[in-house]
Amino acid sequence: MPPERTPPDAPIFALASGAGRAAIAVMRLTGAGCDAMLRRLCGTLPAPRRATLRGLRHTAGDGTPILLDRALVLWFPGPDSYTGEDSAELHLHAGPAVIAATADALVALGARPAEPGEFTRRAFLNGRLDLVEAEGIADLIDAETEAQRRQALDQADGTLSRLYDGWAARLRIVLAHQEALIDFPDEDLPPAVEQALLDELRSLTREMRTHLDDGGRGERLRRGLLFAIVGAPNVGKSSLLNWLAERDVAIVSPRAGTTRDAIEVRAVLGDVPVTLIDTAGLRETDDEIEAEGVRRALFHVKQADCVIGMFDGDTPPVNLPADAILVRNKIDISPPTTNRPDTQTISVHTGSGLAHLTETLANRARALTAAQAGPPLTRARHRAAIEESAGHLAAALDMHWPEMRGEEMRLAMRALGRLTGAVGVEDLLDTVFSQFCIGK
Asked: pLDDT-derived band of residue 434, with 50, 70 and 90 as boundaries?
């Protein structure tokens, strides 16, 4: 016989608060039968959506009732809950023994531990939110800066979903008009019907292309930027990295070639998360290990959102991107002989010019992630779906046969549906919700 499948609304539980020593631990519970479990634990069901202090009791194997904890209990009857199911929260004292005993009691009552993202997955399946909003919640949990928080909260609140749903609604109307032209060719529909249809297709295609042409700002803010510090050996790259990181993360030595592998450190510049990379000094070398470091440095130059080119003479590094930020170091011992307006002058040793350089880097980070008109794209999945939809609309505009045009429009509609989870998303669900923590 095949193994028995767990019902999709079977009760699940998870610790929603973070790990580590704390005063309170929040245990979440959702699924069919939550009300009966709460009655077994609390004696009676608390009033909906009102925190109530209750003693949590469980019966031991010999029939003796055991007091697990005195906790605040909240009851959220479905469908007006996060998941759309009957749900509850137990605000426990955060001792490991309390948490473990409560988890054991819930298992004994028929619940099972939740998988990563399973609460939000149930919310999606029960129509409480769509896939784009669910991804916004995941980003909100991971947000490190205020800018990331604002972007994620807008997405979780449905700003992107409303844009995409609006496109889908307009496309449905246009598709209905196209079907009318196909089904009633002999009804002498006015030419204005087809002209209006084509105009709307062009308008939708333009709006999608404009949305795509955002320079990846939303995606950059979500993942953080990559700033690579490059230059010849001993120009102060590691010292600058330590200054920006506000701690000693790279070894500083007068010996050339000390840094052989890329050193990465996370920082915040202009309210944007930035990964700073100190690279090996760029020079010709017979040392096999140092040569590999140089190769990796050049790789990071290609991958970086911003390149910081450091030097300590009058000649900056060569073969840098046109928008690289040039930094002349060691002005305390070797003042520049020429004034280069495109170059920041600093001394990492004395601190001269570092505040201005930091603000320059923060401004570059802000510029690379600055919001434009309309909500930004935040994921490659969104970009691929909109590119696919816009491609089908462009193909529809080139079609002379009404049936072929209608098919391209249906394909465009399907791509938008996959974006928000309206159609054909089963293969995406595991990928989307596996990014969540256990209690969400």
From this structure: low
Question: Is 235 annotated in some ligand binding site?
Answer: yes
279 is in an annotated binding site: yes
Higher pLDDT, 63 or 149: 149
254 is in an annotated binding site: yes
258 is in an annotated binding site: yes
Query: Average model confidence (pLDDT) for the chain?
Result: 84
- Residue type present at position 238: S
Tell me which residue has tokens 């399946």. Answer: 125
CA distances from 210 to 75, 154, 373 (A): 45, 19, 10
- Per the structure, the complete domain to which residue 255 belongs is given by 221-369
- Residue 126 inside a domain? The answer is no
CA–CA gap between residue 59 and residue 62 (Å, rounded): 8
> Which residue in 257, 253, 329 sits closest to 294, CA to CA?
257
Q: Cα dist. 200→130, 191, 254, 347, 404 in Å?
A: 26, 15, 66, 58, 17
pLDDT grade, residue 3 (50/70/90)? very low
Judge if 364 and 266 occupy the same domain.
Answer: yes
Tell me the C-alpha distance between 157 and 154, whole Å.
5
Question: Is 280 marked within a binding site?
Answer: yes
CB atoms within 10 A of CB 440: 23
Q: What's the CATH code of the domain at 44?
A: 3.30.1360.120
Residue 2 banded pLDDT, cuts 50, 70, 90 = very low
Torsion sign across C-alpha atoms 185, 191, 194, 198: positive
- The string of pLDDT tens digits covering residues 237-267 is 888 888 888 776 654 545 444 444 567 888 9
Strands 272-278 and 225-231 come out as parallel
Q: Is 434 annotated as a binding residue?
A: no
Domain boundary among 341, 369, 397: 369
Residue 381 burial by Cβ neighbours in a 10 Å radius (0-12, 13-18, 19+)? middle
Q: What is the CATH number of the domain that holds 309?
A: 3.40.50.300
101 and 161, same domain (yes or no): no
260 is an annotated ligand-binding site residue: no
pLDDT per residue over 41-56, tens digit each? 999 999 999 999 999 9
The verdict on whether residue 238 carries a ligand-binding annotation is yes
Query: Under a CB-based contact definition with an 8 Å cutoff, are residues 171 and 412 in contact?
Result: yes
102 and 156 within one domain: no
Question: Is 123 contained in some domain?
Answer: no
Confirm or deny that 236 is annotated as ligand binding: yes
Q: Which of 193, 195, 201, 212 is nearest to 170 (CA)?
A: 201
The response to whether 239 counts as a known ligand-binding position is: yes
Pairing relationship of beta strands 225-231 and 112-113 according to DSSP bridges = unpaired
Domain count, the chain: 3
